[in-house]
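Suppose a colleague, Dr. K., hands you the sequence of a protein chain of 278 amino acids and asks what its three-dimensional shape might be. Before reaching for any lab equipment, you can write down a predicted structure in C-alpha cell form. Begin with the sequence itself:
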Amino acid sequence: MRVDCWWLISVTLFCSRALWAQDTLDVVYPREGQRVAAYDSTFIFGSTRLPGAKISINGFPVKLNVDGAFLTVVPISRGEFRFVCQAANQTDTLQTIRTVFIPPYLATTPSNHMAVDSSYVFPTEDLHLSSGDYLEVSFKGTPGFSGSFTVPGLVEDAPMIELPSRKDFFWGGAVFGSGGDSVTPEIDGIYTGIHKIPAGVVLDSAEIRFELNAGNGTCVAVTAPGRLTVRDQTIPQIGELIRETTVARTGPGLGYHLFLPPGVKLWLTGQQGRYYRA
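The predicted structure, expressed as C-alpha cells, is then:
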C-alpha cells in the first residue's frame, strides 16, 4: 500500500541559544506580507533575547516564557494589518513591525451584471499531477448562470455546477471555536468542477480557462493563476532531502506528519506550489 505525504521543502529552523549574538525581538509567525485567513483574531509567536524584557503587541501585554519565547492571540481587522511588537526593559526598547493582509469576507458577486471575481479563481498555484489524479477547479461569479472549464490537451468545455448557498467559515473558528453559526452572509455563485486525468496525457504548464455563460451569447472568460503540468509517470522523479530537517505534512498546509533528516530520497508524484507530494 502506498501512502502519499506532502512535503514543504522550505522550513523554519530554530537556532540554539549559542547563536544569538545580540539583543533581538523576532516574530516567527506570521511572515511579513503573509495573507492570513482569520475571523476576529489570530495568533502570533516569536522570541526575544532582551534581558528582563516585557512584551506587548499592539498595546496588549504578552506573557513571556523563561526561554524568551512568546505566543499570544491578538484582535485583527480586515485589509492591511500591522502587528507592532515591543520588548522593553529598564534601559532598552526593541520594536518589530509585521505587516500582513487579512482578506475581506467572501461575498456574493452583485447580480446587476455578469462578472467573475478575479480574487477567487482556483487553482491559484501551479499543479503537477499524474494520471488517475483528479483536477479540482472553482471560481466565484454572478450566480444563476452556467460555468465551464477548458484545459487544452485534456478537456474542453467541461461543465461546472453552482454550489448551494453557503457561509464563509474560517478553519480556526470551525476547529477551535464554539461551533456556532458564522456571522458572515450566505454566498452564492461558487462554481466548481472536477476531471479525472486519464492515462497517456502529458501536459506542460497548460492554462486552465473558465467561462461563465448566460445562454444568450453573452459570456465572461477568465484564466486561473495556476497552470497544470502532467508528467509521464513511466519515468519516476526522485528527490533527495538536503535541509537539516524537512517537515512532511498530511497535505499542503495541513498537519505535521514526519520530520526527516538530509539524505532521505523521495519518489515525487505531484506538486502544488512549493509543496511536493511524495
